[in-house]
């Protein structure tokens, strides 16, 4: 045992050294005693991409060998034929099983981890609820109510304010997480500006002179904007891609006589206009971009969502264990209770499944004749599961 405890670390170190010098994507070597474990540990930080590279060289399936002293031997696959075999044709032979429930014990006996009668009970009950005519109308109402509760437009304003500051000034004020006076001031300024349209000029000018009413609010907002922008207008903040540099050069080279004030005032006004426009226009529009019935007609949006899910499935893999020995369509023999890992992340990136442009983000692949979303079988697009366990909430997820 002492000799083994000395030799094993040396063997692992040797394997790591060899793997570091291997060509990227090369098939994992099955080392004596420790199997293919070193390759997994070496690529653990990029395990999904590494698995995809290996599977692409093994026709979509590999027999993984773990250390001899542990029960880690498994079959890893991503081929559509195997997915159809496991999830549909031989569905009853591949339950979630005790191994899955052991790993995901936090799920308890819910629909995701249950099998047979209990799973059927969960499925029938869930489907009955979601099949009611009022379910999706209630969903729409709930989404609107939730959006109203957390003031969706206010959140979007802060997102765009931070983004435009980062883009123009290379500075993130973090208004999304704090109550920034300047960001709030931009909202406070809108109402007094509107009143300037409807009140007589003499009235709002008097309010401004006396610093009362809506004009007082506008002056306070303007001061908050000044306090925010002025420290950012300095030579130290200029750079090759900084908006300050571009406007300073434009000011110095300009012969326009209507420019009043000094350079600092010019830069302040330029930045204020861009912050105001970049923050409010986009956020106001997006607030209304959430009607359920209208969204069903947005073919390209639906295609873009599908393409995102193809490349980045929310659940990257699944685990199955056969009740009885089986042979997969590709010829791989699976022993009873052998772990079978199905990697959907890899399925979405297989050239044999999606073509030579499989790694490109191309929503057009989902659009048929330019007018409707193309159907892809679940064995290719496995995001919403396949076979009897097909996700009941697919429509709700897209909404």
UniProtKB/TrEMBL annotation:
Domain of life: Eukaryota
A Gene Ontology molecular function term of the record: iron ion binding
Cofactor: heme
Coiled coil regions in record: none
Keyword Glycoprotein: no
Signal sequence annotation: 1-22
GO terms under biological process: lipid metabolic process
Keyword terms of this UniProt record: Heme, Iron, Metal-binding, Monooxygenase, Oxidoreductase, Signal
Family membership noted in the UniProt record: Belongs to the cytochrome P450 family.
Name the record gives this protein: Cytochrome P450 CYP4/CYP19/CYP26 subfamily
Source organism of this protein record: Handroanthus impetiginosus
């Amino acid at each position: 045992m002492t000799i083994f405890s000395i030799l094993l670390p040396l063997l692992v170190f040797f394997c790591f050294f060899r793997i570091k010098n291997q060509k990227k994507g090369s098939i994992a070597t099955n080392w004596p005693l420790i199997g293919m474990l070193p390759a997994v540990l070496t690529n653990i930080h990029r395990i999904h991409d590494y698995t995809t590279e290996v599977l692409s060289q093994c026709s979509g399936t590999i027999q993984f060998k773990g250390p001899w002293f542990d029960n880690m031997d498994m079959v890893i696959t991503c081929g559509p034929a195997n997915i159809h075999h496991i999830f549909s044709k031989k569905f009853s032979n591949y339950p979630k099983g005790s191994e899955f429930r052991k790993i995901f014990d936090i799920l308890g006996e819910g629909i995701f981890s249950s099998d047979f009668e209990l799973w059927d009970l969960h499925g029938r009950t869930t489907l009955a609820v979601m099949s009611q005519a009022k379910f999706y109308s209630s969903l729409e109402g709930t989404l609107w109510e939730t959006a109203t509760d957390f003031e969706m437009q206010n959140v979007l304003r802060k997102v765009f304010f931070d983004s435009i500051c980062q883009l123009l000034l290379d500075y993130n004020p973090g208004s999304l997480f704090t109550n920034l006076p300047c960001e709030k001031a931009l909202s406070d300024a809108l109402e007094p500006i509107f009143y300037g349209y409807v009140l007589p000029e003499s009235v709002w000018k008097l309010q401004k002179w006396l610093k009362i009413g809506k004009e007082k609010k506008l002056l306070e907002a303007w001061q908050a904007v000044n306090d925010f922008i002025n420290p950012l207008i300095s030579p130290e903040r200029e750079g090759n891609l900084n908006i300050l540099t571009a406007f300073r050069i434009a000011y110095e080279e300009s012969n326009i006589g209507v420019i009043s004030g000094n350079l600092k005032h010019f830069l302040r006004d330029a930045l204020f206009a861009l912050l105001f426009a970049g923050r409010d226009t986009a956020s106001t529009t997006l607030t209304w971009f959430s009607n359920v019935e209208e969204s069903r007609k947005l073919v390209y949006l639906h295609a873009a969502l599908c393409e995102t899910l193809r490349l980045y499935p929310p659940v990257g893999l699944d685990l199955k264990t056969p009740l009885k020995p089986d042979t997969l369509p590709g010829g791989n023999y699976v022993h009873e209770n052998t772990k079978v890992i199905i990697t959907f992340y890899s399925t979405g990136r297989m050239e044999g499944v999606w073509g030579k442009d499989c790694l490109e983000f191309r929503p057009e692949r989902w659009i048929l004749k330019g007018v409707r979303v193309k159907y892809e079988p679940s064995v290719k697009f496995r995001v919403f599961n396949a076979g009897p366990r097909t996700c009941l909430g697919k429509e709700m997820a897209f909404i």
